[in-house]
Amino acid sequence: MAGLAALWLASPSWALSLSAAERDWLSRHPVLRVGVVPQAPYAVLDARRQALSGSHVELMNRLAAELGLKLAWTAYPNKTQLSAAARTGSVDVAPGLEQTPAGLRYWLFSGPFLRIPYKLVGRGEPAAALELEQLPGNVRVAVAEPGAAAAFLAANYPALRRWPAGSDRSALQQVLQQRADYAVVDEAQLNQLLREPEFSPLRAVGDSGATRLLRLASRQDWPQLATLLDRALSAMPASQRGHLYTRWVQAEPTPLGGSLSFWRRLSQVSGLLILALVGALLWRGRQQRQMRQALAAARQALAQREAGAEALRLTQFSVDHSTVGILWLNWDSRLRYANQAALTMLGCAEAQAVGQPLSRFQPDLDMDGWLDLWSRARSRGLLQFEIDCLRADGGSLPVDVSLSFLRFGGADYLVAFMHDVTEKRQARAALRESEARFKGIAENVPGLVFRLERGDAAGDPRLAFVSEASLALTGYPAADLLARPEGLLALAHPEDAAGLRESWRAAWREQRDWSWQGRILTRDGAERWADLRASARRHGAAGMVWDGILWDISAGKRNELELSASRAMLRDLAAHLETVREEEKAHIAREVHDELGQVLTVLKLETSMLELSLERSEGAAAERLASIKKLIAQTFALVRDVATALRPPILDAGLASAVEWQARRFEARSGIPCLVLVPETPLRLDDAKAVGLFRVLQEALTNVMRHAEAHTVTLHLQAQPGELTLSIVDDGKGFERRPGETGGSYGLVGMRERLLMFGGGLEIASAPGQGCSLTARLPLRPDEGEEET
Fold first, then answer.
1. Span 726-751, mean pLDDT?
2. What phi and psi, each to the nearest 5 degrees, are found at residue 186?
């Protein structure tokens, strides 16, 4: 196999053409540090020869030969440590990694140079190659989880019964133990494992469809290297890539006794045994042990020295490239060392800073001040302060300095860590200005400005800020309110405290703004009306903050209450006047009907008697009698109409009968059909309510006849528990209503006011071309409604 590798490396060059810039970059980086995780067949570490072999090793050797580079190999126990080395810049190239979102943070990946399929493995030889789609639903398939194969199966075959395993070896062992029927293993690992006698009963019986893509990963800060590796891989002949796959991945397992490597190893072991025997005869055991101990100690010391040197280089690299400025100061205040960040802050080169006294960059610091700093840092261990440094260009730079005492190499130093706080200082100034502006606004707002905070669901709300206007509004200074655990709840009137508390709880539950209006008590016990408005915002992970204002609305509230009382008095007066008017109408209707009716009846009888006495008369007297009788008949009709208009007698028969009677009169006068729906059982209803609802019906039908141009009208009187409704619906031309618009119609206003007298309401729904629906609602007492049958 070593001969095949040599022949492959000796194959003709790919004639990769490089630009001048690329050749220059390669000349400045002649050695690449390559990191691998030993795993057959990709990279195998020979402990005796301390040499690596495998597909990744051969590939990198070929690429290095093509690019004219040397390789320095480092083996890492696992991919975690390899990734950690990449983050610290200890590795330049890592062959054979799979591209992952996490790896993209510190690797640049090439295109895939090897595609390793995942095979379906089972016991014995199948009659034909199996496919995952052909497997029954009760078949168990073992697969290493987590891993690319497991993710592929979960995404593409969700119904497949996956049997999780810790590794590919464990997956094959579960098939041997019959805990799983098949296993999914990548081809390279499978060919390695099948060489072991334990797995000899197993065979690859099909392809899973999943593929493992292996790439070259290079450090992110060397994009030139990534480009060169990509070009070299693209230029590599397909036959050489196929050689890698055929030689290392598809190598067929051979029996233990028929393996050439087995006999080579056996001969090597035999030779070692013979040499050990000869050595035992020639050398004394004591000398041999001493030599081995000395050799082990030397190797260990060398390894420790190399590790220390590498750690020192990493430390120096980290310090030089840190974003924190670092200065080492001698006892005489002169700079011993300054990293790149400190030089950038000071605005000078290393030669201009090292050896200079600290007073060069801090003119106010004399030797006495420096010795005082030295003494305090040595006694306390750490000093922190903020100063303004003088830059080389004469400018000033605010820095935050942490000064600590350090003894190193038999000498004493002060180490200064500097942070540029320009933005921090600007932010502090902006914050102070914002706080001053906020305080000025809060103190001049005619009300109590506050901030209420609640950290989480388990915590209690607390006042974080209260403006000094609280003294004028409540009589309490801001400090007193902030010190009280109940906060604003302490101000609420006892009768309104529950409402204030519930309004805040609702704002907390719904994560919304907080509003409340009620009474508060000042420090001297005076009662005031207050209005609270606060805007909500998130605070931390689960907290809330309300920023708001509480102001005195006592004057406006008194006006509002007085206006409400005045409106109530006016409505009561209107109701009383309407009642008096209806009673007067009823009285006049009875007087007209009874008194005038009796007079007209007597007059009619007397006229009839006169006609009988003048039966034989002719001429003008007979005509005059006929005219008098006609006038008396017209007077009778007029009396009936006046009495009915003042108070329809049908109301005495009940509201339902009055609604039907009015509908029939409307049909006779307008010619518009009217559908009436009324309760079958009589209604118990207060007479004033019946009259009021009847007048609403009359006004509504009058409007339909005058304006609606309707074809049909529907009247629906309905008694429900606690409410009586009357609906008047027409199919006329309708109209458009705007919120708050009266339209100059006193009819609608009168209807609404009539209903408001009894605690009811009026609802109107209409649109152009869609008719109009008017619904009158009256509340019913428990003793009102439909009578029981």
1. 74
2. -70, 150
**665-699: buried (b, 16+ CB within 10 Å) or exposed (e) per residue?**
bbeeebebebebebbeeebbbeeebbbbbbebbbb
- Residues 388 and 293: beta-carbon distance below 8 Å: no
Q: Which residue has the tokens 């379906």?
A: 120
Residues 784 and 760: beta-carbon distance below 8 Å: no
Query: Which SS3 state, helix, strand or coil, does residue 17 take?
Result: coil
3-class SS of residue 449: strand
Can you tell me whether residue 475 is helix, strand or coil? Answer: coil
Q: 56 and 38 in contact (C-beta within 8 Å)?
A: no
Cβ-Cβ contacts under 8 Å for 52 (sequence gap 6 or more): 36, 38, 43, 44, 45, 46, 73, 75
Kind plus residue range of the DSSP H or E element containing 532: strand 527-539
Give dist(CA 425, CA 439) in Å, integer: 21
State the first-to-last Cα distance of the chain, in angstroms, to the nearest integer: 112
Record the tokens describing residue 681, joined without a space: 């059982």
Residue 608's region, left for phi above 0, alpha for psi from -120 to 50, else beta, is alpha
* Local confidence band at 66 (pLDDT 50, 70, 90 cut-offs): confident
| CB-based contact 520:531 (threshold 8 Å) | no
Maximum average pLDDT range among 174-178, 335-339, 492-496, 713-717: 713-717
* Encoded tokens for 674: 């009217």
List the beta bridge partners of residue 779: 723
Beta bridge partners of 579: none
Residue recorded with tokens 């030397």: 298
- Tokens 């008949």 belong to 633
Mean pLDDT of 506-535: 86
Contact 245, 114 (CB under 8 A): yes
As a whole number of angstroms, the distance between CA 7 and CA 760 comes to: 106
The Cα angle at residue 474 between residues 469 and 480, in degrees rounded to 5: 80
What are the backbone angles phi and psi of residue 442, rounded to the nearest 5°? Answer: -60, -40
Query: Residue 146: is the preceding peptide bond cis (ω within 30°)?
Result: yes
Identify the weakest region by mean pLDDT among 167-181, 190-204, 302-316, 488-502. 302-316
Q: How far apart are CA 695 and CA 686, in angstroms?
A: 14
Upstream peptide bond of 779 is cis (omega within 30 degrees of 0): no
Is the predicted pLDDT of residue 358 greater than 50, yes or no? yes
For 97, counting Cβ atoms within 10 Å of its Cβ (0-12 exposed, 13-18 middle, 19+ buried), the class is buried
Report which secondary-structure segment, H or E, holds 87.
helix 79-87
pLDDT band at 257 (very low <50, low <70, confident <90, very high): very low
- Model pLDDT for residues 450-464, shown as the tens digit of each residue: 888 886 655 667 777
Residue carrying structure tokens 């030295």 = 374
Cα–Cα distance for residue pair 773/751, rounded to 1 Å: 14
Residue 784 vs residues 491, 539, 761: alpha-carbon distances, Å? 45, 56, 18
AA identity, residue 590? R
The sign one gets for the Cα dihedral 205, 207, 210, 216 is positive
Distance CA 60, CA 72 (A): 11
Q: What is the mean pLDDT of the chain?
A: 78
pLDDT in tens, 162-193: 888 888 888 888 888 888 888 988 888 888 88
Q: What is the pLDDT of residue 10?
A: 44
CA distance linking residue 724 with residue 690, whole number of Å: 11
Neighbours of 250 (CB within 10 A): 11
Write the CB contacts of 122 (distance below 8 Å, at least 6 apart in sequence).
130, 175, 181, 182, 183, 202, 203, 205
Higher-confidence position of 550 and 611: 550
pTM: 0.35
- 127 to 204, 431, 442, 462, 744: CA distances (angstroms): 12, 79, 87, 77, 96
Predicted pLDDT of residue 4: 44
251 pLDDT higher than 60 = no
Which two tokens mark 4? Answer: 């095949």
Supply the pLDDT for residue 5.
Answer: 45
Angle between helix 554-591 and helix 746-757 axes, rounded to 10 deg: 100
